[in-house]
Amino acid sequence: MKWLWIVLVSLLSFQVLAAAEEKYSKTEILDRPLMERYILDELKSLRMDQQDLERRLTIQITDRELDVADKSLNYSNITVTYFFYIIAGVASLVALVGWQSLKEIKHNTKEMADKRLNEITMSYEKKFGALERDLKRKTRIITENNREIEIINEVHNLWLRAQSAQTPEQQIETYDEILKIRPGDLEALTHKADAAMEINEYHWALSICNRVLEVDDSNGHALYQRACAYSRLGAEEQAINDLKLAIESSNSLRELAAEETDFELLRGNVRFEALIDPTEHS
């Protein structure tokens, strides 16, 4: 706005000067000082009007800025006041109406949390219980396996001792120790029957073989030992029948029977000879 007034004043000054020059050309030289005085007064008047206009514009702009700031401050004050009124109202409503509800919510939340914790605790107790049972079972299995290994080693040592024994009596004692560790061990019983045959305890050997055959009626070793016992006791047919079953279960016993001294009484028996050498009697 200030620059606009300056431009207007300049244009007006140029017009005044132009008019003055034109007037100077038409008037006499004596009238020129009056014209200059007139122009100067006009310029002074214009400058004063411009200054007055600037002053009034400044006052108006300042008033408007103050008015806007006052309205903004008033709006902010009202907004904050309403906001606090709303908060106070909600707080009062909660205090008057919802206190019991808050207590119930707190109580229900606590019950829910306790229930959930109990469920989690029970779940982990079950898992830990199952884990403990599994560990106990595995520990028991490991203990049993260790015990079985110890038994196997002990039995193995006893078998080695039986093989290195000098007399059948010593072998029988060793087999009895094996049977104490493993009652009903068929292999130990058959070897014990073999040792009994060596000390001419034929009835004892026969009884031991019967015990084995009650459990395993196709045990070739027990059938062979019982055939030897029957042969020594003179029961040829029974001896040949057991020998036949023994050879059928294990063909390697045929060669052993051909050289067995316990079958001396069966030599010359057609059935016996056919068993130990079937090619000659085919």
Alpha-carbon Rg, integer: 67 Å
The shape is: rod-shaped
CATH class of the largest domain: Mainly Alpha
Report the count of strand segments.
0
Number of domains: 2
Order of secondary-structure elements: HHHHHHHHHH
> Helical amount among residues, as a percent range?
over 70%
Major sheet characteristics: none
**How would you state the average pLDDT, rounded?**
77
Could you explain how this protein is built, in words?
- The chain is an all-alpha fold and 282 residues long.
- α1 (2-26) runs antiparallel to α2.
- It has helices at 2-26, 32-97, 99-163, 168-181, 186-198, 202-215, 220-233, 236-249, 253-258, 270-276.
- The chain is rod-shaped.
- It contains 10 helices and no strands.
- The chain has 2 domains: 45-152; 165-276, Tetratricopeptide repeat domain (Serine Threonine Protein Phosphatase 5, Tetratricopeptide repeat).
Task: Name some characteristics of this structure.
282 residues, mainly alpha, Serine Threonine Protein Phosphatase 5, Tetratricopeptide repeat, 10 helices, 0% strand, rod-shaped, repeat
Briefly summarize what is shown.
The chain crosses the membrane at residues 82-102. The chain is an all-alpha fold and 282 residues long. The chain has ten helices and no strands.
